[in-house]
Amino acid sequence: MWPVSPLSPCPAGSFMSHQQKTPRLEVGTSEEKPYSVPLPSVTHNGFLYKTPSMAKPVGERKGQEEFSRRWCTLQDGVLSYYENDRNAVPNGEIKVEEIVCLVNNPPNAHGIESTFEIYIESERLYLFGLESPDSAREWLKSIAKSFVHPRAEELLALDFERIGRLHYKGGLNLERAKEGWFALAGSTLHVCFEDSERQEPLQLRKLQELSIQGDNEVLVLVERRRTLYIQGERKLDFLGWVHAIQKAAGSAGDTLSEQQLTESDVPLLVDRCIDYITQCGLTSEGIYRKSGQNSKTTSLLEMLRRDARSVRLKEGEHQVDDVANTLKRFFRDLGDGLFTRQWGQDWLRATALEDEEAKISEYRRLLGTLPTVNRATLKALINHLFRVQRFSGENQMNTHNLAIVFGPTLFQTDGKDYKAGRVVEDLISHYVKIFNVNDQEMKKQQDEIMAIMKMREAASSGTQQAGDFICTVYLEEKKTEAEQHVKIPATMTAEELTFEILDRRKIVMKEKDYWSCFEVNEREEAERPLHYSEKVLPILHCLGTESYLVVKKQMSMENMLIYLASRVGDCKHGMMKFREERNLLGLGLSTGFHDRYFILNHTCLRLYKEVRSHKPEKEWPVRNLKVYLGMKKKLRPPTCWGFTVFYENEKHEKQQWYLCCDTQADLREWFATFLHVQVGSGHGTEHAVFQELGCGGMLG
């Protein structure tokens, strides 16, 4: 049996079968009104063009002759339309409290220049239009203001494509569907949740997953650390929302900012190609110099441009040179280029600077001028090329050879002038300085490179297939029936491994389930939840025979989330009982636990002899610490709420010590703070807290 975490009040409970990721949305009764406060009284009138109401989506373009001119008035919560402005009896009316969605169509979508659609609860759709865009905009604003709940009035300021109310589930509560107000503007879905005073933007191009489940009843939007389930009150308007969100979540053009993006603002297309080549092609001879098949490159690029989110590059199905060629062609065809037309010549002129430090300084200045997505993409690409040249002994692609290929590609030139190549060569050679890469990032990269090299050595010795690394991961506890044998690619994160294990065993998350991947050290009788973004392969190569990985629930996550959300500042201080490992720290303490005062902030952990001490006896950078829950029983800890702490500096000098807290609550607070300061986020929203504390898995 693996050790039970001291954070856990009891062992993990029973769990249900998973593949129904989509919860059923149980909505309120028909008697429940969507408005708890009176709607604002809005008055507007004028002539509008109108078609007969419909019971299905507008599938075809409506000609001008299909519209009839009607006098329309909006007052006292009713939109009425008349034969003309002299009639006293309306031809029909729409109660604003029955409106569920308002859609602003693109210009000239129909025979009238500016048109908009109104959806109501009884599954009817009304199409109106005007030849004047300004007048149509005034009608849109007035109608929206008349039916949108006052708590969602923030949405009215948006240049929305559609706005309305939908039922959703998400966050910490999946028991009951709530009503929210949604507005789609560009590639952002703005949401006013039922229990929130402010709207929250969802960047649709950054979604990890977008799917329809439950017989087309539920739209599932998966961000990193959050899943949102949306259902329309009626099929008619819901189908429109689905189509519009799917379109907005796709790539919209040929510039970088119009692509589907990762959480770190790198185009998903670029991320997919780099990940695949890192996993399968770092040692491929002539990588990026060789050309792939033109037809396969064209086909793959079209697929990735259309929806990179749905494309999975797999060894055996895709050739390394085809993927490499796809990445190069993407950059060569990029609208405005990676370095932008505005700044491209400045980058080329920087190569003339003879003083190396001045040139690096100029590159750093130019890097700061690039748009966010361009800057993130350039760093991701140069980071990748930096890795590729580390394997030049096998792939024959040193820094100079890579620069010859990528200079003309990135600057979109004919290659006759080597200035473009010189820029790329400088960026790779001075990668650490130009991109301000810290020691922690470099160590992480070194670990990943070492892991890949070990994997390639094992492959060449015939002990395993090329590209494969199979490891055993346990579900909930270490026993034979809980074993899962998983192929670990070089790019797999702890979060992806957690998803893989739960999907295999069809585990469904209940409300407030927090699944994580843990590194368990049997010898130390301690365990560590992995951060969701940690790469698994380097960890596996560092594990001793006494350690293994297990996917299980993190039982105290909710308490830690509550603590982090309510904390003041990023610091924690207090007394803990401290013990050295064989007196290695030189503090002269006798064997056993001693009271010491600790201060932890986002840069270091300091140890003081007592509260009144001004000078710390010891301090350690937090980036060099690994904190495990639990400790060896033979140490006879004074309480059961303890940590085992490992420290390793850049010279690979190692230290180990133990800390004990007086209460379980104190342990949780210290551990949550350790996780928080090591991840380095500083936000206070529920989503951000999930993001910073998310440990290798999924949050229900």
Automatic annotation (TrEMBL):
It comes from the Eukaryota. It holds the Pfam family RA. Residues 467-556 form the Ras-associating domain. Residues 1-36 are annotated as: Disordered. The keyword Cell inner membrane does not apply. One of its GO terms (molecular function) is GTPase activator activity. One of its GO terms (cellular component) is trans-Golgi network. This is ArfGAP with RhoGAP domain, ankyrin repeat and PH domain 1. It comes from Accipiter nisus.
